Amino acid sequence: MAKKTDTQINSSALDEVQNPIFRKNLQALFKQDEILAVRLLTLGEQKQYEVFVGKDPIDINMIDKNSFEYIYEKPARDTEQLLSTIGNESKRYPVMFFYGLGNGVFYKAMLHNQTHKHIIVIEPELEILYITLNLIDLSEELANERLILFYSDFVTYSQIYHLMVRQVFMVYAKTYTLHIHTPFYDKFADDYAKINKHFTRAIAQVVASHGNSVADMLQGIDQHIRNLPQTIKGYVYFDLIKKRKDLMKTAVIVATGPSLDKQLEALKKFAPYVTVISLDASYPILAKHGIKPDYVTSIERVVETSSFFKKRYGEFDKDIYFVVASLTHSQTVKNILPRRLILTIRPQAEKSFKLDKHGYLGLGLSTANQAFQLANALGHTNIVLIGQDLAFASDGKSHATGHAFVQQDEYIYTTAYGGKGEVRTTYVWDKFKNQYESDIESFNKKGIKTFNCTEGGAMIKGAIERPFIEVMTELSQNAEIKNLPHIALPKDRVVEKELLQSYNFIERKLKVLNLVKNKIEEVFLDVVDDIDKMIKIRNEGNVSEKLFKKLVAITNKIDKAKMFAGKKEFRLYIEYILSISVYYQELELAKISVAPSETTLEKTNKLIEWVEMHKYWLFSLAGGINAEIETTKKASKNLINEMKKRNLLPIK
């Protein structure tokens, strides 16, 4: 007899739910959070909360039978007060965050306002979720994700991060506040603080991963384009994965934390039986100790990173693949060649070139995250971390003996390895750790185990903490000495096709960038004098309702320019420079957009703020686009020279 799938079981169980409201709500929730829906479906008897329903359909209250506390003093009155305070104050907020579901009536009412695209609600009590979803029909709101429900016990940082990375949440990051539904939820203060920390960490991670500056982004674009010929001519990432996927069960990722010193002897013993992935900074240390890695990863774009590859080790280097982000510094490429170099494309701006066989690897801020993702791509089911301290040692050391650089002191603290006490870390290391924890949670769902055998430094949540010798002895039992197959360089016809594809893409990109730049500059010159006059009037305290129509006219011109820049057919070529050039202005604009304004005078003052910020928006975007045009032109010389050698340049 065939075994029923979870989906069939869930479908069958749903059909047996007698309450049509609960059945509809669960059907919608299954699409949003299947684990929570199953838990509610199989909850059974409710013991802690009792519900009271009055004559008024919104007069629904619940009492905690242990503490004798009600969620509301008077449900109808309390809901009306919430709507008149939070509801009115936030009526322009596209996204909102609440702790506590209560009876659900408030959220049903709030979502009548179509401005609210998403309301996120975290509820700490499973029984309250169960009762409310039996009483209030929220199925439409759940199905279209205008209402997103979380059960606090199931919430992880990774879930919150993947929510906040979505565009609508990213843009409104500066408007984030976690509202407590009613005073009843004050008793969950510790849980509320934990959830709030997840959100603030996720927001910080999203902002950090967005890039530090236009200059930083332009350096990446410059180096990616300069390296295009070598990316295309060199060993291909897709070929490597195809040839070697699932050949090895265990990978050891070697970072350069202070604890690495004590693991080197054991690593040398087990290296022949497992995949060894070295970070760029670890490579000279491993070479010194005669431990050959299978892969060396690097993601940094600064020239200093090239120093790790300056020394060559002859026969030792023969079979190593250097898996490096395509936006690396050209000196790094020179120092690695003629060794086996694979330049990989990151899943960011570089993705627009559509050289899919060369990517996509390196989501995150560090080469440690890159190596972790490589281990996953190669099909390893056990990933072992060593030297991944992400913290200063007790003697103040930041890296293993033999590392070329020293980390600048910072005084930030995080939970120590083993969960006891705290260790000193840095802002950047903490972001690396966040990415690790997000990846570990995703990998766990695929049955991949992550072992943190650093035996020191910071705790990486989700990783199994065990001694390195113990784990390697267990994982290497009956393992044979590895003999990994190699890949060939791509054929000339494939190389030439991709060179031409890249050239044509750059030509189209430059055309679009020039079109948008000209439009933005035209509108900026048209409105800047009027905007400056409005700012002067405001600063002199002479704002009146008479200015409103003029401000609307200015706003309409700006809106048309933004619509032009945001055209669907331009998106592939401009999306990244657009997002990073004006990201911080967009965060400020989001704050302005949600501010309350009822009277014409209030609306006038708000519009002055709005056009003032757009003055910087237009200026920043025009400047960013112009810089990318110039950067792209200069960086394309290597590509053009390679095409000239091959007689590939199209006749114009």
From TrEMBL:
Q: Which domain of life is it from?
A: Bacteria
State the InterPro entries in the record. Answer: Maf_N, MptE-like
Q: Where is the 6-hydroxymethylpterin diphosphokinase MptE-like domain?
A: 223-393
Which parts of the sequence belong to the Glycosyltransferase Maf N-terminal domain? 71-140
Q: Short name of one Pfam family for this protein?
A: MptE-like
Protein name, as recorded: Motility associated factor glycosyltransferase family protein
What is the source species? Campylobacter californiensis
Q: What is the lineage of its organism?
A: Bacteria, Pseudomonadati, Campylobacterota, Epsilonproteobacteria, Campylobacterales
